[in-house]
Every structure is written in structure tokens, then in C-alpha cells.
Design a protein that fits this description.
4-stranded antiparallel β-sheet, about 160 residues
Amino acid sequence: MTWSRPADDIDAALLRALADTPDATNLALAETTGLARNTVRARLARYESERSLRSFERRIDPAFLGYPLEAFVFTTVKQRRLALISVDLEAVPEVLQVHGISGVGDLLAHVVAKDADDLYRIAGLILAIEGVKRTVTSLVMGDFVTYRIAQLIGGRPNLPA
């Protein structure tokens, strides 16, 4: 999605504070950033309406829920069935996210499983979707750089009080 309004210095200060302490209250965010409480409240409401912030779900570790095995499934599909395939992939609970990609496949599905047998079952479900031509599954062997975004937040480190 392309944003018509990029983040400004106020957004940067507030987002840095949220990245450091995601559960902070509006008052705590105001004190940390030097912004007025009404400014914090208005910006958070704007983020909500713009859908600028991702869901809380990104913070939950699948292993905690009994899915310690992660994999990526590169999927080659019939292009004219792409929308229907996406709906079918969304119906598989173990599919966390699907990206449309170029290169080695058409879709990249991030999946989780309870164990190797469960991953085999999930890969079979994906391969059985009408329009899926081929899949290649790669296990996640380790996280060397975990999901992060705070380093992209621009602006001044702290706004004057």
C-alpha cells in the first residue's frame, strides 16, 4: 500500500516510544515524547483509521501456541486462479502469511507446524489446492535477524518539550 502521508517527526517520536514500550499509556507516551496528551491520542487514532500499525498478532510466538516448526512454501500457481488460491490458503490455519513474489515461484507462504508430520500434512493441503502446480518447502533453521522496523523510523530522536 502506498501512503499519501509519510511519517513526520512527531510520528517518528511517537513510533519510537511505542517500539520501546508497546503497552505504554497515552500519558506515558506523552511524557516520553514531550508531546501533548491530545496530540498522542489524535495520532494514535489516526494510525488506527489509516491502519498504519500492524496487529498484535505479530507479537505472538507460534511456538508458544504449540507450533515450533516454521517453514516457507514457495508455490507455483495458475495465474488466472490466483485470487481463489489465496482464499484457499487463507482457510489453512497454519498459513501465517502469503506474499506474491517474482522469481522462483508465484506465492511465498509462511507456515507453522507442530512437527515434521504436521508440516507434511500442511504442504499436502497447499499442493491439493486447485490451481497449485508445484511447491517447494524450506524449513526455518534459525532466526538471524528477527522482524524489526524501528531502525527505519526517521525524524529527530526526541522532540523539544
